[in-house]
Design goal:
It is a single chain. The chain has 701 residues and is an alpha+beta fold. The protein has three domains: 152 residues, Glutamine synthetase, N-terminal domain (Ubiquitin-like (UB roll)); 392 residues, Creatine Kinase, Chain A, domain 2; 128 residues, Four Helix Bundle (Hemerythrin (Met), subunit A) (Up-down Bundle). The chain contains 23 helices and 19 strands. A hairpin with a 2-residue loop joins β15 and β16. α7 packs parallel to α15 and α10 crosses α11. 46% of the residues are buried. Bound molecules: adenosine-5'-diphosphate and magnesium ion. Magnesium ion (MG) binds next to β12.
Length: 701
């Protein structure tokens, strides 16, 4: 570490501290009102902020600025503009106006829009999100922004997320008001645990599949996998340790609260977890973290893989999305200390259960991608079926409520529950009960959504969660406000509502083993959705019920939703197309020639030995030759089949049909072709094999 952590932390961020120090006090106060209460920022204030931001950035060595945004490509985008403004006497001034801070017009025509711009003939613009701080990256002042069309349609991931925060703030405050609390500032809090692989740059550069698809399309299992369980939390190898230290330092300068780092289960796999923040900052920070992870690796001769399944047969990488709600900074999913807080906790819990059950398909959809299809349901990550894990204690409370037995409920901790006075044991927090197989788990004072893949932008999952929970909160508030008008006793009405709602949505709760085959059968019996592939998961976006959810709360309108569906379908189809092409190219130009060379060498040796020693028993060599020619025949046949299917599917007009056939014809064919090649990998001499194998890639110095 080159310097003191507290000195460098946030040194490249125009944060509240810098604002307080540098802005005139009226400007600072106006800006804080915008940040905390969403009040509009007027141009005079913006001009002062922009000037001060520019002066600060120039002192830190910045020469350019950019509106940094999250188009639907899944990554972040930036276009750098210089502060420079030449004047007539040959010199140049450095300028940056409030208008440039607030709004900009990137040439948006080549970002995916799913037909939105074609329909509306509108250009895109980016608008400052003042609730996420500006920062400096590579001498560029980056301003976090939302990206919309001129008719106001969201063209990015951030806009709906910001809308969903406003929605949940409003609905949650209605609920809090019923509990006699004044208006509170609500934040959705998010902490994203990021998994990744690090491999050596040398191996990477020798594999076209890694370079173009971020995963290995071929490769026999390594002789040693993760069975010794020595990698998880094991000592970190020096190369990786240097990388991690470098990464921490870069992230801290950007004010990213990187906290925990460790080796993960698979060889060459690691994890970084930050401290949670308000959702939009947490997600901006997750995207920045991912970028830094990728870019820093080459300083250390490494490559960072963020694909969900870079290696078959070895655990893939996810991104656990820890989610909670905070009112004026206080976590609302913390089971409370007094009866009324406990009742409120049970209401929120029930709302979340209802929301996840009602909109399970949307949540599943939000994590659908070609990469994640290899991971969900592969006994290493949750299945593709959404369910909720509550842990023993909370589950028995729910059980007691559902069955009207709450007065008989007594926990392991010898606390009786009487909901007349709503006593809830305060031990839930220490509930260390862990169930790694659950997609959506209560972990003491927050939920952990474990389905997102390592490469995804977590905005959408959080947007859906916020909106679906808002819908439940609204339902509760509507009923209770009406009950109040009718003079019903509040606590009684609340308990009746909790019981009924839990009964209606009990099916989503599952504490058992999510990896087991029995669960898939049981889930089907319960009527839970099980969308195995991206092709199956995406169409739910067009279901009336789901469109109505987004429209009711103004989070997305129908055309925005349709555009997202189109973009996702196209992205999936394009990725499978690239994988199929890379696969065919590698088979034709690398594997088949290498196998032919090796076969020729074996044949030549047989012939040479025979000429010297005619009576020698060469049946072993002949068996190898037979296996090689059998393998080549199979490879050739599968290659022809893949080629034909791939061309037919690629030419399909209808993108959904194309996706279906990619998922159920092209991908399985790719797997069969791979298996044939992999089978030969273990008999062809290492000298002839044209690419590094799993042993070499996963176990490097
Ligand atoms: P585990 O591996 O046991 O899930 P980690 O410590 O790796 O735990 O990650 C827990 C994550 O949850 C961290 O990113 C942490 O900041 C986050 N987290 C903790 N409390 C909250 C909360 N109230 N809201 C959102 N995220 C939270
Ligand atoms: Mg973890």
């Amino acid at each position: 570490m080159s310097s003191n952590v507290s000195e460098i932390y946030g040194s490249l961020v125009f944060n509240e501290h810098v604002m307080a120090e540098r802005l005139p006090s009226v400007t600072y106060k106006a800006l804080m009102r915008t940040i905390e209460r969403g009040e509009p920022l007027d141009i005079e204030v913006a001009n002062v902020v922009a000037h001060s931001m520019k002066e600060w950035a120039i002192e830190k060595g910045a020469t350019h600025y950019t509106h940094w945004f999250q188009p639907l490509t899944g990554i972040t985008s930036e276009k750098h503009d210089g502060f420079i403004d030449p004047i007539s006497d040959g010199r140049a001034l450095m300028r940056f106006s409030g208008k440039e801070l607030i709004q900009s017009e990137p040439d948006a025509s080549s970002f995916p829009n799913g037909g939105l711009r074609a329909t509306f003939e509108a250009r895109g613009y980016t608008a400052w999100d003042p609730t996420s701080f500006a920062f400096i990256k590579d001498e560029v002042l980056c301003i976090p922004t939302a990206f919309c069309s001129y008719t106001g349609e969201a063209l990015d991931e951030k806009t709906p997320l910001l809308r969903s925060r406003d929605v949940i703030e409003e609905q949650l405050n209605r609920v809090l008001a019923l509990f006699g609390e004044p208006w509170r500032h609500i934040e959705v809090t998010v902490g994203c645990e990021q998994e990744y692989f690090l491999i050596s740059e040398d191996s990477y550069k020798k594999r076209l599949d890694l370079m173009l698809t971020n995963r290995t399309l071929f490769g026999y299992a390594p002789c040693k996998g993760q069975e010794l369980e020595e990698h998880y939390f094991g000592a970190i190898r020096p190369t990786v340790n240097e990388y991690m230290k470098d990464l921490d330092e870069e992230l801290w300068k950007l004010g990213i609260p990187a906290k925990t780092k460790h080796n993960e289960v698979a060889p060459a796999q690691h994890e970084l977890a930050p401290i949670y923040e308000r959702a939009n900052r947490a997600i901006d920070h997750n995207l920045l973290t991912m970028e830094k992870m990728r870019l820093l690796a080459n300083r250390h001769g490494l490559v960072c893989l963020q694909h969900e399944k870079p290696f078959a047969g070895i655990n893939g990488s996810g991104k656990h999305d820890n989610w909670s709600l905070a009112a004026n900074g206080k976590n609302l999913l913390e089971p409370g200390e007094n009866p009324i807080e406990n009742l409120r906790f049970l209401v929120l819990l029930t709302c979340i259960i209802e929301a996840v059950d009602e909109y399970q398909e949307l949540l599943r959809m939000s994590v659908a991608s070609a990469g994640n299809d290899h991971r969900l349901g592969a006994q290493e990550a949750p299945p593709a079926i959404v369910s909720i894990f509550l842990g023993d204690e909370l589950s028995s409370i729910v059980d007691a409520l559902v069955n009207d037995h709450e007065s008989e409920y007594a926990s392991a901790h010898k606390v009786a529950m009487d909901l007349g006075v709503a006593v809830l044991p305060a031990f839930l927090k220490d509930n260390t009960d862990r169930n790694r197989t659950s997609p959506f788990a209560f972990t003491g004072n927050k939920f952990e959504f474990r389905m997102p893949g390592s490469s995804c932008n977590p905005s959408e999952a959080n947007t859906i969660l916020n909106t679906a929970v808002s819908k439940s909160l609204k339902g509760f508030a509507d009923i209770m406000e009406a009950a109040e008008d009718e003079g019903q006793e509040f606590e009684e009405a609340v308990i009746a509502w909790i019981k009924q709602t839990l009964r209606d949505h009990e099916r989503i709760i599952f504490d058992g083993n999510g990896y087991s085959d029995e669960w898939a059968v049981e889930a089907e019996r319960r009527g839970l959705a099980n969308h195995k592939t991206t092709a199956d998961a995406l169409p739910c976006l067009l279901d009336r019920k789901n469109i109505e959810l987004f429209e009711e709360f103004g989070v997305l309108n129908e055309s925005e939703i349709r555009s997202r569906y189109e973009v996702k379908l196209e992205k999936y189809n394009k990725l499978i197309n690239i994988e199929a092409r890379v696969m065919k190219r590698m088979v034709r130009t690398l594997y088949l020639p290498a196998i032919a060379d090796f076969a020729a060498e074996v044949a030549e040796n047989v012939w040479k030995v025979k000429s010297v020693l005619p009576e020698a028993d060469l049946s072993a060599q002949e068996r190898i030759l037979a296996k090689l020619s059998e393998g080549v025949k199979n490879i050739d046949a599968l290659l022809a089949e893949l080629d034909e299917t791939h061309h037919t599917v690629r030419a399909l007009e209808d993108q959904q049909e194309c996706a279906n056939r990619n998922a159920y014809e092209v991908v399985p064919l790719m797997q069969r072709l791979r298996a044939e090649v992999d089978n030969l990998e273990i008999i062809v001499s290492a000298k002839h094999w044209p690419v590094p194998n799993y042993n070499e890639i996963l176990f490097y110095a």
